[in-house]
Amino acid sequence: MYKSILKPLLFLLSPERAHHFSTTSFGILNAVPILGSLVRKMLHYENTNLQKSVFGIDFPNPVGLAAGFDKDGQYINSFSKLGFGFYEVGTVTPLAQEGNAQPRLFRLPKDEALINRMGFNNGGVDTLVKALQQVKNRKDIIIGGNIGKNKLTPNEKAVDDYLICFKKLFDYVDYFVVNVSSPNTPGLRSLQEKGPLSHILNTLQQENQIKGRPKPILLKIAPDLTEGQLDDIIEIVQDTNLAGLIATNTTIERNLANTDSADVEQIGKGGLSGKPVADRSTEVISYIAQKSKGTIPIVGVGGIHSAAEAKRKLDAGASLIQIYSALVYEGPFLVKRIKKGLA
């Protein structure tokens, strides 16, 4: 039904408008008792074989929703019913920001991919906190908080932005993700360098250890890092005692796409996600798993559009996986199909 009816209709809208329309419509659908119950029944699939314990958290299944889908936590009550094992909100920044000018989200249907240059558009951390306070059945949903810095914050003060978000979200999320790998905030990826990254992570860990029950902190990395840079990342993770890594964010490479190069060039800057990044993200996962001898928990993300691709990420060394772009092309039943395939 999704591919034959809903998807063609949604693709008549711009990608960003289609996102807002589908998320709002699904929320309204779930708010109607009879329809909501029917939807949940159709999407429900649980199997105890899928349960996993990673970085001190018990996950009902390994399939999560990646950051970027629900930056402000507006849709947790409805979209958590798709059957995700965990749900990541953000990327959030201390202050609200509009992000980059529209259009900033583009489809590559031939590749089943997206290019985005959203630029951390979000309502700010206080808006996210208010949304998290309204989440129903909070104990039944594992929520991660993906944190970043405001565009106007200079890199030398970036640690302050991450610390603000960390402190304000601490009581409302189950784990944190430090995002220094988005290609859409000028200069952000330079924070992946050893010096500034170690400073940010050590500062967050110092604040974390003050708490009665520290929360797992993960780092989200780009797929475009060299092996030398990945070696530095592994060393930093070990030195700062991070809980794990999320591999990977979107790529700035364009030679992975099969869409006509002129069409891709016309779109301009932005991060490429979806099927074209699948192989590279798996390579990064495998490299980290082998180099660290499996001591670093990895959340695999990038081009997961089927149970087979999910299994490939897990076999490469990931403990958990996340999806986002594939939902645009495969629809809401993708979560159930992946879980059934893995089980």
The major β-sheet equals: 8 strands, parallel, barrel
Mean pLDDT: 94
Broad CATH class:
Alpha Beta
Q: What fraction of the residues are assigned to beta strands by DSSP?
A: 15-25%
Report how far apart the termini are: 24 Å
Shape: globular
Number of beta strands: 13
Order of helices and strands: HHHEEEHEEEHEHEHEHEHEHEHEHH
Unreliably modeled segments: none
Spatial arrangement of strands, main beta sheet: 3-4-7-8-9-10-12-13
Oligomeric composition of the shown chains = single chain
CATH topology grouping: TIM Barrel
Estimated radius of gyration: 19 Å
CATH superfamily: Aldolase class I
In CATH, the architecture is: Alpha-Beta Barrel
What does this protein look like?
With 343 residues, the chain is α/β, with parallel strands linked by helices. The chain has one domain (2-342): Aldolase class I (TIM Barrel, Alpha-Beta Barrel), CATH 3.20.20. 41% of the residues lie in helices and 16% in strands. It has 13 helices and 13 strands. It has helices at residues 2-10, 15-31, 33-43, 76-79, 125-133, 158-169, 194-210, 227-240, 261-267, 278-291, 307-316, 325-330, 334-342, and strands at 52-54, 57-59, 63-65, 86-92, 105-108, 113-116, 143-147, 175-179, 217-221, 244-247, 271-274, 298-301, 320-323. The strands form three sheets. An eight-stranded parallel β-barrel has the order 3-4-7-8-9-10-12-13, surrounded by five helices. The protein has a three-stranded antiparallel sheet with strand order 5-6-11. Helix 6 links the parallel strand 7 and strand 8. Helix 5 (125-133) runs parallel beside helix 6 (158-169), helix 8 (227-240) crosses helix 10 and helix 10 runs parallel beside helix 11.
